[in-house]
Design brief:
It is built from twelve helices and 14 strands. Strand 5, helix 6 and strand 6 form a beta-alpha-beta unit. The strands form two sheets. The chain has an eight-stranded mixed beta sheet, with helices on both faces. Strands 3, 4, 5, 6, 7 and 8 form a six-stranded mixed beta sheet that branches. It is globular. The chain has two domains: about 250 residues, 3-Layer(aba) Sandwich (Alkaline Phosphatase, subunit A), CATH 3.40.720.10; about 110 residues, 2-Layer Sandwich (Alpha-Beta Plaits). The model has no long low-confidence stretch (mean pLDDT about 95). By secondary structure, it is an alpha/beta fold.
Length: about 400
């Protein structure tokens, strides 16, 4: 019974890509930045071969890697969660998803106000925590919705749970998702519920929910499901793929719960893919430019690796990768960073080898499918074959 556990360390980049400057990213390197922290301690990732990946400029390269290693190049235009995960699963996005540095136009906001019956506050790119301090009390007073964006392709709606019940907020997000199609087809509409009595005490709750565009093509998830395999989504994977190609899903409140759910699935019988997103690296530490917090979260994941590896069966494969960068030492913005990502593949029947730098994240999806004897319906080369993409 074959199982693949594909874990995405959300935003764990390993160095700027050749075109990073075109995205406003100069000298960015998430791994290098967090490795400077006294809280950085990842002996198990080291043993798998993280520091042996081509181009990695951090860590101790001693020892022999226990896993297949590769550096992943993003072929898509963009540096966000949706585009990164879609490419992992086989979809290359030739154009970036739309962003709104000046806020959303009236052709979006007018139907949104009309259909929700509520006004709009903010409508600017904003920090998700600062926006509550600056607009939370106005929201309590007017009951208007706080709508904001970021450097990512997102339409975010924040509302106090006492003013807008969470299910109603989700309904407003579904309305926005229906409006935001075509040229305004942002990657994600995100519900951002919060609580608290006043400025300085407002706090986002764990009941965030993402409403993504439906992937525009066939993914490895679709092919696995069609072949009768289980496709289990942990964390925000179901949201990113709008449920397409997924047979079972569980949402999580952060890394700790995501890791615990993964450990539970390791104890279960199934045949197919368990696709996991660990979001705290990005959400709590990357965007907030918290180097020590990021390093601590990475170390906490590393501490759990022996438990994960210890539960693996003879036919199991573990893959560890990322979807983009979010260098916490970058001070020019709080945006994601355009970076290469790591790839580690470990299993009892996997022969460790260096696969160099790959042309696309889609090689991961192709590798998953080949493991199950399925021919990919997208461009991507399996790393189970002994080929390097230099």
């Amino acid at each position: 019974m074959k199982r693949v556990f594909l874990i995405v360390l959300d935003s764990f980049g390993i160095g700027g890509m050749e075109d990073a400057a075109a995205y406003g990213d100069l000298n960015v390197n998430t791994l290098r930045s967090v490795s400077s922290s006294p809280f950085f301690h990842i002996p198990n990732l080291k043993e798998l071969g993280l520091f042996h990946i081509e181009g990695v400029a951090a860590g101790d390269r001693s020892g022999t890697p226990k896993a297949v290693t590769a550096r992943m190049r993003e072929a898509s235009k963009g540096k966000d969660t949706t585009v990164g995960h879609w490419e992992i699963a086989g979809i290359c996005s030739p154009r970036p998803l739309p962003t709104y540095p000046e806020g959303f136009p009236e052709e979006v906001l007018a139907p949104f106000r009309e259909r929700t019956g509520r006004g709009v506050l903010c409508n600017r790119p904003y920090s998700g925590t600062q926006v509550l301090d600056d607009y939370g009390e106005a929201h309590l007073r007017t009951q208007d919705l706080i709508v904001y964006t970021s450097a990512d392709s997102v339409f975010q709606i924040a509302a106090h749970e006492d003013i807008v019940p969470v299910e109603q907020l989700y309904g407003y997000c579904r309305t926005a998702r229906e409006i935001l199609q075509g040229k305004h087809g942002v990657g994600r509409v995100i519900a951002r519920p919060f609580t608290g009595p006043c400025r300085g005490q407002f706090k986002r709750t764990s009941r965030r929910h993402d409403f993504s565009l439906t992937p525009p093509g066939i993914t490895m998830l679709d092919q696995l499901k069609e072949a009768g395999k289980d496709v289990i989504a942990v964390g925000k994977i179901q949201d990113i793929f709008a449920g397409k190609g997924i047979t079972e899903a569980v949402h999580t409140g952060g890394n700790e719960e995501g890791i615990e759910k993964t450990l539970e699935y390791l104890d279960r019988d199934f045949e197919g893919l368990c696709f996991v997103n660990l979001v705290d690296f990005d959400m709590l530490y990357g965007h907030r430019r918290d180097v020590d917090g990021y390093a601590g979260a990475l170390s906490a994941f590393d501490e759990k690796l022996p438990q994960i590896l210890g539960k693996m069966r003879a036919d199991d494969v573990l893959m560890i990768t990322a979807d983009h960068g979010c260098d916490p030492a970058c001070r020019t913005s709080t945006d994601h960073t355009r970076e290469y990502t790591p790839f580690l593949m470990y299993g009892a029947k996997i022969t460790p080898k260096d696969m160099g730098t790959r042309k696309t994240f889609a090689d991961i999806g192709a590798t998953v499918l080949q493991y199950f004897g399925i021919t990919p319906a997208f461009s991507g080369e399996s790393m189970l074959e002994d080929k390097k993409e230099r």
